[in-house]
């Protein structure tokens, strides 16, 4: 999941070297934090959050075989 999120984010932004994904596992969930450059934030979020919602949907579908809930935070 971490690699998938990193690949998607790097494909969208102007500064792919600034993309960083942090994975934190908790008891019932997995938290993926996506860090991008300040001027790429709009590309990752999209108008009215549509791209961010699509990214979260893809990651949740990829993690459907996990027994934990997956949360994607864009920082």
Descriptive notes:
- With 75 residues, this protein is α+β, with helices and mostly antiparallel strands.
- The protein has a single domain, classed as GMP Synthetase, Chain A, domain 3 (2-Layer Sandwich).
- It has 3 helices and 3 strands; from the N terminus they run αββααβ.
- The chain has helices at 2-12, 41-45, 50-62; strands at 20-25, 29-35, 69-74.
- The protein has a 3-stranded mixed β-sheet.
- The longest helix is centred in the C-terminal third of the chain and has 13 residues, at 50-62.
- The mean pLDDT is 94.
Descriptive keywords:
alpha+beta; 75 residues; GMP Synthetase, Chain A, domain 3; 3 strands; single chain; three-stranded mixed β-sheet
Secondary structure: elements and pairs:
Layout: H1 2-12, E1 20-25, E2 29-35, H2 41-45, H3 50-62, E3 69-74
Order of helices and strands: HEEHHE
CATH architecture: 2-Layer Sandwich
| CATH class assignment | Alpha Beta
Spans with pLDDT under 50 lasting ≥5 residues?
none
Count of runs of 4 or more consecutive helical residues: 3
β-strand amount: 25-35%
As a whole number of angstroms, the C-alpha radius of gyration is 12 Å
Q: What is the β-strand count?
A: 3
At the third CATH level, what is the topology name? GMP Synthetase, Chain A, domain 3
The biggest sheet, with number of strands, parallel, antiparallel or mixed sense and barrel status, is: 3 strands, mixed
Strand order of the largest sheet: 1-2-3
Number of domains: 1
Would you tell me the structural class of the helices and strands?
Answer: alpha+beta
Kindly report how far apart the N and C termini lie: 17 Å
Helix percent band? 25-40%
**Mean of residue pLDDT?**
94
Relevant CATH superfamily: K homology (KH) domain
Outline: globular
Function: A probable RNA chaperone. Forms a complex with KhpB which binds to cellular RNA and controls its expression. Plays a role in peptidoglycan (PG) homeostasis and cell length regulation.
Organism: Ructibacterium gallinarum
InterPro entries: KH_dom-like_a/b, KH_sf_prok-type, KhpA
GO molecular function: RNA binding
């Amino acid at each position: 999941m971490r690699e998938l999120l990193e690949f998607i984010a790097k494909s969208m932004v102007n500064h792919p070297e600034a993309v960083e994904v942090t994975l934190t596992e908790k008891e019932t969930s997995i938290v993926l934090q996506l860090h991008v450059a300040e001027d790429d934030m709009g590309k990752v979020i999209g108008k009215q959050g549509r791209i961010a919602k699509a990214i979260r949907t893809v990651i949740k579908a990829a993690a459907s075989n996990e027994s934990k809930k997956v949360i994607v935070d864009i920082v």
